[in-house]
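Narrative of activities, Objective 1.

The group set out to show that a structural description can be obtained from nothing but a protein's sequence at a throughput compatible with the screening campaign. Below is one input-output pair from the validation batch, recorded exactly as produced.
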Amino acid sequence: MHRRALVLLPLLLLALNACRDGSEPGAAPKASPSSSIASPTASPTITPTPTHTKSHRPASPSRSAHQPKLAGPRTNCGTVQPPGNGPTAAVGVLKGRVACATAVAVFRTYYRRDTPKQGSAGVATVRGWLCASNSAAQASITGRMSTCRTSTTTISADVIP
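Output recorded for this entry:
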């Protein structure tokens, strides 16, 4: 009996590690986006991806009813309209996990005219997120309008082409 357990243990650990990573066998590794707020242009542009539908354990009804689903990297969460005649921006997750509703709400608050901002990058703290914007010229080159981050999560607002 112990011998069988020792043979199956590495397979069990491999399966658990795959579940924890959230990656699927044969999937290409994801690029690691930059989390620097000083250079919001270093990360790739957000592209919509299908959501992962496999579930390794069922969520309890009480937990799923009260906690929103968290979106991970490369997830498109919706759009926001910056003030003035600026282009509509796609809000996405670059690093970490956050509820899409939170990500969109952070940018909507950041883009409000009455949100106090500092310097040419428009640096502001919104709901605990540190936000900054590129110049209009840099945004037209890179497609990245703004980035907001916490210690573990980075979200962006990108120009919709």
